[in-house]
Structure formats: structure tokens, C-alpha cells
Amino acid sequence: MKGQNKLFTAIVIALILGVAIGGFVHIRYPESAEPFSKNIKLLGTVFIRLVQMIIAPLVFTTLVVGIAKMSDIKMIGRVGTKAMLWFISASLVSLFIGLVLVNWLEPGHVTTLPIQDAASAEELVKSSKGFSMEDFVKHIIPKSVFEAFATNEVLQIVVFSIMFGIALANLGDEYAQPVVKLFDIIAHGILKMVGYIMWFAPLGVLGAIAAVVATNGFEIFKVYAIYLRDFFFALAILWAVLLFVGYLIIGNRLFELLRRIKEPLLIAFSTTSSEAVFPKLVEELERFGCNNRVVSFILPLGYSFNLDGSMMYMTFASIFIAQIYGIEMSVGQQITMLLVLMLTSKGIAGVPRASLVIIVATCSMFGIPPEGIALILPIDHFCDMGRSMTNVLGNALATSAVSKWEGQLDNHGGDL
Known about the structure:
single chain, mainly alpha, 19 helices, globular, transport
């Protein structure tokens, strides 16, 4: 937690320095603003390329390990099926709410920044004009997995990872276990790299903010206030939907559940980590009356497949960045983006700001300048507080709902 606080402080300091430097150039040396922006933006480019460097191996290893370990679903049978149906439905609803509200509220239309990555814009135009079922199939199914890795084609990597993970799951523990263990170690190593790379984030923020303020002045700050307002409004809508569904399933016991998990919710909110409250959440759900076998299966699975707050944030942030750069996306492209995020977002739970990695990959895939992520990085900490707390609520509701469906929810509260 100390490391995360230091990083947050460093990002805030970088933000202030970036504003000061960019504002100074904008006011005193307006004729030099363009070359200055071009040069200092390289700091942001370094950070973005570091993030892009780990996208392919991160998606591959986490998905393969997650799917290979899902052979447990066969043993638990109907509990696992119900859990996965909840996870998929909740994820789609969360993504859809984010998509609808960001299009309705249009937080990115407060100001428009010039597209600095011309190649990305050209690619977007090409893909929107020449889209066909044949192109879609070619884009999904890799001709070569090495080519997919080399070009960071995330969707193709996801397809290969799913097939490989299913194959390992059906190979038997004797053969599969060493491979799964190796990939698990590699995945943890890459996740460790995410932590290191995030320490380059302050430089990326400094470069991005200084470049934007130098060329656009102080108008950009209207965007931050509106972005936070609209995002937390969207979160409130998501909470209302989740709590309504929870009430339909477990009735008045929903209020008892909320009293039980209020401490994990507050911890997740203050630390921006839903992983930090995992042990406490297990304890409180068992005390609430959930069967311990159901809790021990669904909750770990939910931490990879049921991150409702993060899911909503991904569509919200991706479309917001497109709006900032004045890129209009068709309904078909946005629905495709929703389905892509549904697949690529699985398996990287518990890593601070891991959703940013997926957003960068998605922006690149749809021709949105990925450097736009640096613009929302300074306020991402505040967004992370809300989405971490929402992730905890979603998993608590999922566990309680499946326990209720199975007739395994003790009405008078359970013992550990």
C-alpha cells in the first residue's frame, strides 16, 4: 500500500509540474509550443510502449492458466455453471451501462484534442469502410500465433489462449500441471513487471500533460471535473442495478449482506485494491450464511471473471478517449469493442491499474491514439477507488445469489 501511495503522490507531482511547464510555454513562448510538445511527448511515448510491450504475454499466460484451472467447474457441476452465467451476464451489463452512459453524457466532447497519431486515424477509416465478415474472421483467427504476438493482435492471442487452455484442462493433471505451473510463474513475473512499469507513469503524465497544456492552454482541466462527475454517476447506476437484482434474489437479507461487507467495501475504496479484502470478504460471507464450499469456489473465480466496476470503466474510458480526439465510432464498432473487452479483460484481477493495460490494447486495436490513456492517468486513482469497491460488491452478490439458488444460504447466518 505504501508503494501505491508513493506512486499516487509521484503522479500528482508530475501532473502539477506538467501543468506548470506546459502553461509557462503556452503563455510565454506560444511560437515554440508545437516543437516543445512534440519533444516532451516522448516521455509519454516511452511509458505507452512499455505498457504495450507486456500486453501479449500478459493476456496469454493469465488466460491459459485461468482456463486450465477451470477444470474444477466439472467437479462442482451446476454451481460452476450458475456462477459463470452470473459472471457473463454481470460483465455484459456493466460494459453496456458504461457504453450507454458515456455516449449519453459525452464527457469527452467538452474539448477536442488534435489526433497526433495519423496512422491510427487512417487505420480507423480503413477498418470502418472496409469492414466485412471475411475481414472480421481474419482479424479473430490467427494465421500464426507468433505473428499475433509480434503485432500485438490481442483478440487473436485470446482465441489461441482459450483453445490452448481448454486443451491443457482436458489433458490430465500429470501432463498439464507442470505447464500450468510454469505459465503461472511467468504470469506472476509479468504482473510484477506491471508494477515496475507503473513507476514510469509519472514521466508519462508529465510529458502528456505538459504537451497538452502547452498547445491547448488550461481548457483541458474542465475535462477532469466532468469526467469524474460522469464516471461516478455511471457507477451509481451500476450499483442500483446490482442491488436491485440482489434484492430480487435474496430479498430483505440484502441489507444484512451490506452491513456484513461494509468494512471490506471501505477497505477496497481506500486502498484501491479488491484483492486486499479477499480474506475478510470470505469470512463475512460465511458468517452471512453462504456455504463455505460455494464461497471457496465462486469468490476466487469471481476475482478473475466478475469485476463489474472495472468492466464498466473500460468501455467508459475507451470511448471517452475517442471523444477527446474527436473520433466518431459507429454503433457496430462500439458493440465490437464491448465484446472484445468482454474477452480481453479476464484474468488480470488484483493488479493495480491493470484495466489501463487492457484499455491501451483496445484503443490500439480500434485506431484510437493509445497515448490518450496518459490524459486520464492523473485521476485514475480516484476512479480506481470507486471501481474496486464495486468489484467487491459484485462478487459478494454473486456468491450470495448462487448460494441462494443452491439452497445453501443459511437464513440465520452461518458459522466459520
